[in-house]
């Protein structure tokens, strides 16, 4: 049975647009392209003058903070390409090809760890991809051993060690192995349970595969399971996706991510295999979104924001209630105030006031490490204005409200004057009922949380200089 709220929650965390407040015309009017704000400034602001030396200096400076560490490891390999995919990946069935990559990862760990105080606890670990379970059990064990040797992994009960899993490439033995390696949270890709949709995106995945893994994960005591869904795929309708959601609710995951498919075939080659005529219309997508929110909230899930939902007893919902939710390159995170170190091709680090990104091409990543240096190809050191705006945007997207007086006090600025342009940009949003303002506090309404990316854009001082075609639609 689903766990329903056991504590009184703030209305900003539980209210959702119901039938009497759902305004399709309003949502369509605001459905422009914009950043997802997994960082501020966004990756489009990173520049190539930022060098590996700049990143190593940031690592050294970060030791003074004694903040815990968060490690992200990118495993780019997949056995089969899903046509909707926009991730950095390499399609192959040969697991031996991962061996040289694991060697480069270890070299990157050594080069990184020598600049870090490795007594800092690793509170968070996330393996993403690609498909991390592409690796053999032995390779996964080897990678964990290397991470532990270089950084010192944690066995603390409150650690958050997560891995993304393709149910087509994992079984109960995989889960038992992952548990023995220290993982306590799983994210399983589903996307849709409808066979016609699955065939159209080259991801045929019967429900029984997911169900078997989830049952075993619950039995083994994994703390939290996340399921990934995508709306906007070929042949999806409001009715068909509601049927998928009904089955997903029966599976009772602790978290759900329901992503909006962004069809960008000019940027992502696999998407060229999707027939655009088979995609649902804009009106149908809105109907799917509306049904999704209603069904999940009626089932007891909290709409965290954007595309994330969680049961009220899950650490994500608890962090939001406590005001400690964070947004990073993996989405919403319950562990705030960590320095994030990204390892692997395309990985991005967030260390205090610095972002650093590795090459997206495997050959460039390997060549840099073979020369005995970090693979950083671009990045950014934030100035004071960036830091202030990053805090405002992050708190807005995580808490669904901001206290400008508190921001002003913390940064010793007159926030009303400092953000006068942003507040003017929000005037229409306030008139349209997306936000309310009381003195220095801006609260996001139930309808506004669907357009939170638009609201955050008002505080983005760099947006005017960036090409919006690189961003997906907000809704």
UniProtKB/TrEMBL annotation:
Family: Belongs to the anaerobic coproporphyrinogen-III oxidase family.
Organism: Vreelandella andesensis
One term under GO cellular component: cytoplasm
Localisation: Cytoplasm
Enzymatic reactions: coproporphyrinogen III + 2 S-adenosyl-L-methionine = protoporphyrinogen IX + 2 5'-deoxyadenosine + 2 L-methionine + 2 CO2
Top-rank taxon, per record: Bacteria
Identification of the protein by name: Coproporphyrinogen-III oxidase
Pfam short name (any one): Radical_SAM
